[in-house]
Design a protein that fits this description.
Layout (H helix, E strand, L loop, with lengths): L1 H8 L2 H20 L1 E4 L5 E4 L1 H12 L1 H17 L7 H19 L9 H30 L4 H9 L2 H24 L2 H5 L1
Helix pairs in contact: 2-3, 2-4, 3-4, 3-5, 3-8, 4-5, 5-6, 6-7, 6-8
């Protein structure tokens, strides 16, 4: 009985959708990224736009997995590997938050204003979480005094804000175009 329930939770099509979206998230992140902040320990990229798109197209669980896997893969294959476990949690939660809001009530990810609201809330989560993770890494891994770590990591906040804004500006028209062309019916 348990095996049948486990099979129902994740199907082959679910795995394909998660893997494909994770690959798209990775490519969008790796293709165009710009180091920012003191010490160039952060990067601004286009991956957030695909995290938001995953939230609208796939829903909360699949979007969370695709975002977590795609973004963590970027960290693991780049000089930012120390960030991979934090990215897995932060970006996974970001995709989940955006999808929960996009699919609340009867919206089903198809209300542009609601989606933008979800993207903004998820973006605020990401900015705050990366700030705290960065302070933690600076203070405990590189032995930077806490007051300096707080200042150093604050230099990454404007880049993260820009990343979220650009992600929203890219994700909204793409998601609207895909929804109008019934992509959700095709991929289900």
């Amino acid at each position: 009985m348990e095996l049948k329930q486990a099979r129902r939770r994740i199907s082959t099509i679910d795995m394909v959708q998660i893997a494909l979206m994770a690959a798209i998230v990775y490519v969008a992140t790796a293709m165009i990224n710009v180091p920012v902040g003191l010490g160039y320990k952060g990067v601004v990229h286009l991956g957030d736009s695909m995290v938001f798109l995953a939230a609208v197209l796939l829903g909360k669980k699949k979007a969370a997995l695709a975002a977590a896997i795609g973004m963590s893969l970027f960290d693991l294959l780049s000089p930012y590997s120390i960030w991979a476990p934090y990215t897995f949690v932060i970006k996974g939660a970001m995709g989940y938050i955006a999808a929960v809001i996009a699919y609340r009530s009867s919206y089903k990810g198809e209300n542009v204003i609601n989606n933008i609201f979800g993207f903004i809330i998820a973006g605020i989560w990401m900015i705050g979480a990366y700030y705290l993770a960065g302070v933690f890494i600076e203070h405990f891994y590189t032995n930077v005094p806490l007051n300096q770590a707080l200042i150093i990591e604050s230099t990454h906040v404007p880049g993260n804000i820009a990343q979220v804004v650009v992600g929203i500006l890219i994700a909204v028209p793409i998601s609207e175009l895909l929804i109008k062309n019934n992509i959700k019916k095709i991929i289900k």
